[in-house]
Structure formats: C-alpha cells, structure tokens
Amino acid sequence: MKTLNRSKAHLISQATLVSPAVPGQSCTEALRGSIKRIIIVAGLATAVAAPVWATQVPDVAGSSNTGVASVLAGQDTDEAVDPESAAKAEWRAAMRQYSTPARGCFHASYPNMFWERVECQTGRPRAHPLHTTPKDAQADVAGNGNDYVAEAKGLITSAIGKFFDIKGVKSEQSVGIAEYDDDGNLGSNEYSLQINTNGLLRTDACNSQWYGQPGGGSGCHVWQQFLYSTDYASSGEASVYMQYWLLDWGDSDCPSGYTSSGKDCWTNSSLTSAPDVPPKDLGKVELTAAASAGGNDTVTFAYDGEIYSTSEWDSWLDISSVWNKAEFNVVGDGGGSRAVFNKGSSIGVTLQLVDGSRSAPTCVANDGTTGESNNLNLGKCETFASEFGDNPNIEFTESN
C-alpha cells in the first residue's frame, strides 16, 4: 500500500517506549499498579457522579444530555456503570492530554501513561471520496452529504467522536452504491468511523510552490479525513490513519505521492494497525482528531483499554489554519459504500469540539462531506455548551 513518501523512513521495526508524564521513566509493575488504583478511584468517583453529569442543560429546550454519562463509561445506558469501565474512560481522557511525541505510529495500553512506538502498516490503499448527488430516487439516509456537522466558534484543534445508548444492533454489512460503481470494502462487519473537515477549504497546499510543481486551479480545495477502517490494509486488521485530498486540483498531474481520482488527488498518512471491532461494540470506542499549527495532526482510536494513534505533519494540507466544521459518524468502508444495520438498530452519536470556546457549537444539517453513508434515519440534533469539565458538543440519535 502506498503511504506518504515523507513518512517511509520513519517505519521502525523495534518498539520504542515514550512516556509523556516522566521522560525516561521505567514502567514497573508496582508503578502500573499504583496508576491503576488511582485511575480506578477517579473512575469510581466519576461513576457515582454520573447522574449529575447527565443533568447538563443543553441549548435546545426540553432536551437532556443523556449521552454524557453513558459515553463516559463507554457503555450502553441500559448497562450499569462499573468502576473498571469508568476508570478506563478516565484513562482515555487523560491520554488525550498527551500528544504522541513524533510523527509515526503509536499504541498505549491501560493503565500505562506512555506511548509505545510501533511499526506502521503497509497495504493496498482505498479512497473515502467526497459526497456526490444520488442518481436514483432513493436518498441516502445518513451520510453522503445528509449528515449533521458541528460548526465551531473558532478554529478546531481537536474533535472527539463517541457513541452512546446503542440499542438493537445485531448485524452490519457494507454494501456497494451505484453512484460509486459499487466500490469499497464490502461484506459483513465492514465499516469505517470518520471525523471529516469542511470540504470547501483553501490553503497554500493548492499553490504551486507547496509541492514544487504546477499547482491546482482556482477551484482547488483541501479536505482531510481522520479514519478507522476495518480490514483496510490487510484482512483481519483495521487501520487508523488520515486521508488527504486536493479537491478539484485540475488538469495538472497530482503531486508526488498522491493518487488521481478524476480531477481530485488523494493520499494517506502512515497506518497504525488496530483490531477489527464488531459493530455491537461501538459503544466502547472513540475516535479523536487533532490538528496543530506548526506541529502534527493526529488521529487516535480507542477501544476499551487500548489506544492506537497515527501522527503526521500538519503541513501536508495546513488544515489547522482553516478547520472550523467537523462531521462524525459510522458509515461504509470506503469507495462510497453504505453501512447497512439490521432493522431496529439505534445509535446515539456525540461529537465534542475543542476550539478555545466554552460555547455550544452550531449543529448544521445536510452539511456532511463524506461519500460513505449508512441506512439510519437522523433524529433531532442537540447542542451543549461546556459544563462540568466536558467539551462543547452536539448529539443526535440515528435509527431504523
């Protein structure tokens, strides 16, 4: 699989431990035990306090932020919040405060408070295209443009996507869509989680001097996706990575390392291997996207007590200078495909933003950018300001 040329030299074969808390500190069993006890105590306190968090007053009158307590524990609201699950949620939140120390691929395991450098994946790349207009009368239910987007008060530095109150999910399969030539990774338990930026952003990445060759046309825009995709690089393994797009690049050849897709150009970051998570466990996962001006952009996937992360230069698209809208959902696995859930499925979606503001974001309908979709009907979107230490966020439920 093609990866960014500038990252190939950073694939390493031997694991390296990096601790953001105490540089050079050895991680003994006693220390891990102490950290775990501290986190469990904090998690237990959080679990006890969960009903207070659940009373957060949203900006939409008459609604309630039901997802906060359940998301915190990474569980369905029908299940009891146990101290271990709450402790892992506290640990995941704490690890979000520690950036990966460099470009490349990383992994962390509960309760360790350090990043372990791991070897990056290689494999066959697949595109996750921008949305298109359906040709038939059957409109997409969620995705392919028909999705809620959180619009920030300022520039987004981080977005955290989670699921809550999952009910009735028994099966899922990714199916091909005619508008995209039935492309994608199709079959049972194939899907992707995506945090996507706005689709009509322009940065200097569209200019000729950026890549040292003729640049894109006046209509060129940049688009960045932060992704978890099942069976992406190889069968039996998911991938955590970023996909970069130069939309409407024009008739010039794509920059070195990019693949042509019509008049668009796209490429991937390095890929970090992660487990294929069954769709029924979506309540135990979270996806985080971060963009740092002059630093690295990072995508992080957390599942229970494991975290998988990929970092790459923000300068690939300079997305940090323009990013102010974010989309998050579970959709088909590449190529414009659709994630089809069994009848009676219901999934709560929450997207938190870090933008330097405590004010609630704006929830914008029909403003999604990804070409992938699912077969769930969107419910009402609610917005929440920052209270009780959480981030401003939007919430909605989708079901069939």
Structure description:
The chain is mainly β. It has one domain (5-399). 12% of the residues lie in helices and 34% in strands. The chain has helices at 29-53, 67-73, 83-95, 208-211; strands at 16-18, 104-109, 115-118, 142-143, 149-151, 158-167, 172-175, 187-188, 192-196, 221-234, 237-247, 259-261, 264-268, 272-274, 285-290, 296-303, 306-313, 325-331, 338-341, 346-354, 362-364, 373-374, 377-378, 382-384, 393-399. The strands form three sheets. Strands 1, 2, 3, 6, 15, 16, 17, 20, 23, 24 and 25 form an eleven-stranded antiparallel sheet that branches. Strands 5, 9, 10, 11, 12, 13, 14, 18 and 21 form a nine-stranded antiparallel sheet that branches. Strand 12 (259-261) and strand 13 (264-268) form a beta hairpin. Helix 1 (29-53) runs antiparallel to helix 2 (67-73). The model is unreliable at 1-31, 40-78 and 134-138 (pLDDT under 50).
Main sheet overview: 11 strands, antiparallel
Helical content stands at 10-25%
The overall number of domains is 1
The H-and-E topology, N to C, reads as EHHHEEEEEEEEHEEEEEEEEEEEEEEEE
Low-confidence stretches: 1-31, 40-78, 134-138
Share of residues in strands: 25-35%
Feature tags:
400 residues; mainly beta; eleven-stranded antiparallel beta sheet; nine-stranded antiparallel beta sheet; 4 helices; 34% strand; globular; disordered N terminus
